[in-house]
Design a protein that fits this description.
489 residues; mainly alpha; disordered C terminus
Length: 489
């Protein structure tokens, strides 16, 4: 229980920074959706390019983040040597990427459909190259369990990015009438923020000496390449729909529909925040306890509580959708119907990350890659087949199908190689209860006054929270039984 408390504490710090950071970034969504009209398709440009960024980031880090945690926790390895090695490898690949994009900028821009604005591509290439390198110092902070410094740097960077956007899109146009607004400012602000983040991480780079032991690199690469495949498949599960969409629905209307979808998906990203925060703490936590006999029990309980609180987050978003929809301009509201579907897909993705962790613990990372590829294949197939008929709704359901496939495969095969006794009956009960409460929310007539709908939805939330407290919160259990929680049994 003490180990789970440590996990919860680190998750809370990472989670707080992630949630606050994402919330602050949410402030950019109403800004962008009001500055860029839905029918202009400019927000579709932002959505598309950031989807490519996520994919390239995985390529440039090529599994070295997880590999670092795996090798740095081995007793016979020198932690500083491991850190210098991953910095050298990722830094070299990132620098090569930036140089190649600069050399072949014109043909790359033409292929991507941005031949009139190649500067967008160059700005994003430099940004993602530096970001990839900075993933390693951030991983080092996690290894040292410096969650507070990690969170502080992240929040400062986010605050700076938001300030620059407010300056470029609100203040300067107001005081300088001739100051033109264009979508490129989004990418330039991001680049400047990344450079400042690199400056803040200089203490973590102190003493860095480029090194690449042939034997060590060979061993690390053998562990990392399946994780690279896994990462590619995972990020494609999150971005393939946005990359594919403009190629299936071509022309200005494709950018318009993609912008609407991309804006409304942002509302569902609270689930991605929770998953990311949990991952930041869970990965080093499990690796450091992999030889402990209670590690499987910890994994089982952590997965259950992850499901409980993500279902609660789902219901909270659904309960207050009448307020949260104002995060985007009314011109984008037609896409709000994707929010519950995308949130369900994010829950499945988080469960898949938990359940498939056995692959990393047993060094069978190839299985992890195969599961992710299977899920990615399903997602891409659903998008290709159904986008022409159902537009972005097909993209939303493709995520559910893809993550569901990966989760099912990882669970079935994992129980053979690394059996974990998950409380499936209890978890299924929570899923059924959350689905029932969501269904009840949808039955409340939309013509009723807003305060009435919100009050009823809040009561439904209280019912779900009450079930959690009654059945799965230890302190509540002890108090029900009249036991002093400060005394040992």
């Amino acid at each position: 229980m003490a180990s789970l408390k440590s996990l919860a504490k680190d998750s809370a710090i990472y989670g707080l920074s992630s949630i606050i950071g994402r919330f602050l970034n949410y402030l950019l969504v109403p800004l962008y959706t009001r500055v860029f009209a839905a029918q202009s398709g400019e927000y579709g440009i932002v959505t598309e390019l950031y989807s490519y960024v996520a994919l390239i980031l995985v390529l440039l880090t090529f599994g070295m983040e997880t590999t670092f945690f795996r090798f740095v926790n081995k007793q016979d390895e020198n932690s500083r040597q491991i850190y210098n090695t991953v910095l050298t490898l990722v830094g070299s690949v990132s620098l090569l990427f930036i140089l190649l994009v600069g050399l072949f900028l014109k043909p790359i821009s033409e292929v991507m459909g941005y031949d009139e604005h190649p500067q967008y591509i160059l700005a994003m290439a430099i940004t993602v190259g530096i970001d990839a390198f900075l993933c390693m110092p951030f991983a080092y902070l996690r290894y040292q369990q410096k969650a507070l410094r990690f969170a502080t740097i992240k929040l400062i960077a986010i605050g700076l990015n938001i300030s620059l956007n407010l300056l470029l899109f609100i203040l300067l146009p107001r005081f300088l009438p001739n100051f033109g607004i264009h979508v490129g400012y989004v990418f330039y602000a991001n680049l400047f923020t990344t450079l400042i983040t690199a400056f803040m991480l200089l203490p973590e780079l102190k003493g860095f000496h480029p090194t690449a032991s042939k034997e060590l690199v060979k061993t690390m690469w053998a562990y990392a390449w399946p994780i690279l495949i896994l990462g590619l498949a995972g990020v494609l599960n999150q971005t393939a729909d946005k990359i594919i969409f403009p190629h299936i629905m071509q022309g200005p209307e494709g950018k318009v529909q993609l912008g609407i979808y991309g804006a409304c998906v942002k509302i569902a990203m609270i689930m991605a925040m929770i998953t990311q925060a949990f991952r930041y703490a869970y990965e080093p936590f499990v690796f450091s306890r992999q030889d402990n006999r209670d590690v499987k029990k910890d994994q089982s309980q952590a997965t259950k509580y992850f499901l409980i609180f993500t279902l609660l987050a789902f219901l909270v978003v659904m309960a207050y959708m009448d307020l949260l929809k104002y995060l985007v301009s009314p011109g984008y509201w037609e896409g709000l119907r994707v929010v519950p579907i995308v949130m369900a897909a994010e829950i499945l993705m988080g469960l898949y990350f938990n359940v498939a962790f056995w692959c990393k613990l047993t060094d069978r990372t190839l299985w992890n890659a195969l599961f992710a590829l299977a899920g990615c294949s399903v997602l891409i197939l659903v998008n290709i087949l159904f986008i022409p008929h159902y537009s972005y709704m097909a993209s939303a359901w493709g995520g559910v199908a893809g993550y569901g496939t990966a989760l099912l495969l990882s669970f079935i095969i994992g129980q053979h190689y690394y059996p974990v006794n998950y409380p499936l009956r209890s978890m299924a009960t929570y899923v059924a209860l959350a689905a029932f409460f969501y269904f009840v929310m949808t039955l409340i007539p939309t013509q009723w006054p807003l305060w009435t709908r919100l009050t009823l939805n809040t009561l439904i939330l209280f019912a779900f929270v009450g079930h959690i407290l009654w059945h799965d919160m230890p302190v509540w259990k002890f108090r029900r039984k009249g036991v002093n929680v400060n005394k040992k049994k």
